[in-house]
Every structure is written in structure tokens, then in C-alpha cells.
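Supplementary Methods S3. Complex input for the C2E-bound model.
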Amino acid sequence: MSNYKEQQDKLIYQAQLDAVTQLPNRNQLLAHIEKVSSRAKYQNLYCAIVFIECNQYKSIHDFDGNYRGDPLLYDIARRIEKIKAEHDFIAHLSGSEFVAVLPDLHKQQDKATEVALEFTQKLDKSLKEVFVIEGKEIILSCAFGIELFPMADCNANDLLRQSQKAIIFSDENHFSNISFFTKEIEEKIQKRKQLQKQIHHGLDNDEFSLYFQPRVDIEGNLIGAEALIRWMHGSQGWVNPSEFIPVAEDSSLILPLGDWILKTAFKQLAEWQTIGLPDTFTRLSINVSPNQLLQVGFTDLIKEYLESTKVDANRIEIEITEEVLINYKALAINKINRLRELGFCFAIDDFGTGYSSFSYLSVLPVSTLKIDQSFIADLMQNENQQVIVTMIIKMAQSLKLEVVAEGVESQQQLTFLIEKGCTQFQGYLVGLPMAKQEFQTLLFKKT
Ligand code: C2E
Ligand code: CA
Ligand code: CA
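Predicted complex, serialized as C-alpha cells:
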């Protein structure tokens, strides 16, 4: 009889296990957190939830499907099990998400924090070691969110959600991929949500506009402009793009916002063409975010704007980041090549801040490098920056790429850059970003 009962229990337990990883699922996890939490309240002990997210799983699954995705998840589960202590509890939620519950860590919060951190660092180290899945080597980078509990007024669901929220900010943390949940994180998330609503509202209410920053050659001729978005918020006044663009990029809002930018820039160029653009003006640069470029139908959208506005595609330069070219090489290059066939050209924005290497640059379908302004900012005080900038200019020359120095603010910087062979410049010295009317006056100035 007891044998039968044992068998029954085992079957019930197995039915609740996740088929791929053989770990408990979300329901079991939530029940377990409730149990541990009520016991800890009674014993006055701190426990921890560690939320684990493996960043590359999605692209591996998208590319290789379950063939490699499933064995990878299974192996990750075994590595976590190896690190865990006897009474720790491990569960698999979905896709790349795992959770560890560490019970009864310590009576003092700081000591409990230390133990949870030590566990997570050990886990991080183990998960960084190479996985060999069906003959292919895979290196993962994971993010970890930690929540200490029990916490007043929080049930298991709240605790789990908060540990996951901590992860959102682990990628903003430059020193570590491990983040603890704090009240400030909750506030930041609320602010972000509010800003997203306001961006949406701003789009509906026509609060955005495009400014144009001049690009000049060695003689100071206006050879192009970069379109930069500006937001005059109904009640808060100007909001900085560095504040709202990353928030839009983090949600799908970058798609309608990016679409608005493209549409407005195309229309503007068409208007200027009708007035009669000077021959020297050859580049209107438009910033395109990674998710915007990667979205399905991006090339068709651009084609549509090209046909409806009849702009000269050769006069449009699309600025993208190195990051999108590295992480989504095949997809990005495919889209870029299709647009290049239509006449558009491409620039790498903020060049020098990413993985820039000579060998990969030589195969990328771009025609321009824009040296990141951080290299120019203290160029005259920092010899290392001088060496880097000189190397970038030389590299661009030998690859027959155009090179633009961004953020040029002083005559000294300009002289240095010209001496090293740079031929195009952008920055406060040559012109601030300007509203349409002001820029037009400059553009159509009779000399
Ligand atoms: P970015 O693409 O690197 O744009 C250059 C930024 O440097 C602009 O800031 C510009 O105003 C500023 N800048 C120009 N010259 C100087 C200078 O001499 N010194 C200094 N210190 N700064 C200078 P802004 O307009 O605030 O934009 C910040 C970032 O926001 C942009 O960096 C870009 O990443 C993003 N952004 C702006 N407009 C758009 C857009 O239309 N679409 C997308 N996807 N991103 C945009
Ligand atoms: Ca840019
Ligand atoms: Ca830039």
C-alpha cells in the first residue's frame, strides 16, 4: 500500500515537472515560495529568490529551434543543480528563465545578502563556462535579479515579479550583471511606464519635431545634416532624447516613433529638393534604432516613403550602431544590402565605442564612420584619445570609407582632425542642431 502511495506521489510530482528541464514549474515554485516565506516569518530568517535569465537562449532557439534549444536548457538546469545547496529549490519558468529559492539564509539582512550574492556569483561563473550542444560551442551571458524575503504585504507572485524586475536594471549596471531589488527600482519602473505613456500621447498630439545639425567639409561647406528628434512635452517642456529614446527602444514604441522620424525626414528632404538643394548638400542622416532596422517590413516601409516622396535616395544616409551589425549580422546585412541597391547609404554611429575591428569593418556594407564624440571631447588633453582617433581616420582611409568627427567644439580639435586627414565635421563649433526654419536659412543662403 505504501509502495502504491509512493508511486502515486512520484507520478504527481513528475506531472508537475517541466518536460524539457525536469525541474519544477511555476505553480510548484509559487507554492514553495509561500511555504518558505511563512516559515521564515515565524523564524525571523531572511531567504532569497534568484531570478536567472540567459540572454542568448532566444537567438539560439530562433536559429536552431528545439534541436539545440532543449538540450541547452537541460544542461543549464544541471549546472544550477550542481551549485545549489541541499535545501535550495530550483524551478524553470519559461524559455530562458530559471529561479532559485534559497531558504533560511540569516537573521541579519546584510549577512543574508552576502550569502545570496556568493551563490549567484558562483552560479554566474559556472554558467559562463562553455556549453557544447550537438557539437556546437555556446557561450552564455546571464543576468540575475535577487529579492530578499519575507517582505511585508508581498505574496509569492509579488516576490517573483520583483526579483524579475531587478534584472531589468542589471543591464544598466556597468559593474555587474547581478542586481538586487530595491524600492528605487520600483520607482524607476513606474517612471519608465509613465514616460512610455507620455511618448504615446506625444505622438498623438504632435509634440515631436526634427532638428537638423550641419555637417561640413574642410572648407566649411554645408555638405549634410543629421536629423535629431526633439520633444516639447505638453507640461514638462523639452525632454532630452537621451532620456526618452532608450525608453522607447525598450518597448515597441520605438517602431511608431521611428516611423514618424523617417516619414518626417523624407518629407522634409522632398520639400528642400523642390526648392532646389545646393549640389554640395549630399547627406541627410537619419538615426535608425536596432529594433527599427530589424522589424519585419522595414525595407518595404522605406521603399514606400521613397516612392511617395520621390526623394533622391543617394542623399539619405542611415545611421546605425555597431551593436546591431555584430549581434544580428546576417539579418542586418541583408536589409542594408537591399536598401543600398535602392541608392541609400549607411553610416556606423558612435564608432569606436563597440567592437570595431579592421577585419569585420572591411566586410560591412557601410560607407561612413562617425567617430563617437566621447573621443573628441577631451582630445586635446588626452594622448590616448589622439592615438585612437588617428588610427580610426587611417583605418577609414585605407578602407575607402568616409569619416566624420562628431562633437567638434573647438578650433584646436578641428585643426588636429584636419591634420590627421579627417574631412567631415559635426559639432557645436560648426553648428548646433537647429529647428527647420533656422536650418533652411543656412541651407539656402545666397553666397
Ligand atoms: P547621436 O546620434 O550620437 O547624436 C549626437 C548628439 O550629440 C545629439 O544629442 C547632438 O545634439 C549632440 N551634439 C552635437 N554636437 C555636439 C557637440 O559639439 N558637443 C556635445 N557635447 N554634444 C553634441 P541629442 O540630440 O540630445 O541626441 C542624443 C542621442 O539620442 C543621439 O545621439 C541618438 O542616439 C538619439 N537620437 C536623437 N535623435 C534620434 C532619432 O531621430 N532617432 C533615433 N533612433 N535616435 C535619436
Ligand atoms: Ca547619430
Ligand atoms: Ca553619434
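The mean pLDDT is 91. The chain has two domains: 2-181, 195-443.
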